[in-house]
Description:
The chain is of the alpha+beta class.
Amino acid sequence: MGADVVDLAHKGKKLPSFSYTIEFQKVREFLIAIGEPDPVLTGEPVVIPPTFAATFPFWGGEGWEATFERIGVQVWNILHAEQEYEYFLPLKVGDTVTSDTHIADIYTKKLSGGELEFVLFETEYTNQDGHRVLIDRSLVIVRG
């Protein structure tokens, strides 16, 4: 298969696990990047935004480029379609989360101008105590 086609055999495939420890400075950088007040300057306690989990694969894992190479897709051929977080416990600075990622679905949608392939990644994160803290679902479109 070519680099622009996702092999359906990847459906259900598990990806390498990684762990990431939530550091104050990284949360601070994220808060500043999204336009929230700097917790150091305001004296407020650090509240970790729900979307902070999007950083885990980049700072703790191999990143999206390597993930897509594992399924034969070049990163420049993807578009981010949807992101969903389902939280079970709050995240705190100092928590170490460990990933368990698999490809939950691969499907094609026919359009008037051709077809688009969709790949759904699902990652369950557990904390240092073994408790499930969140499930991250990420849907991407593979342009062919």
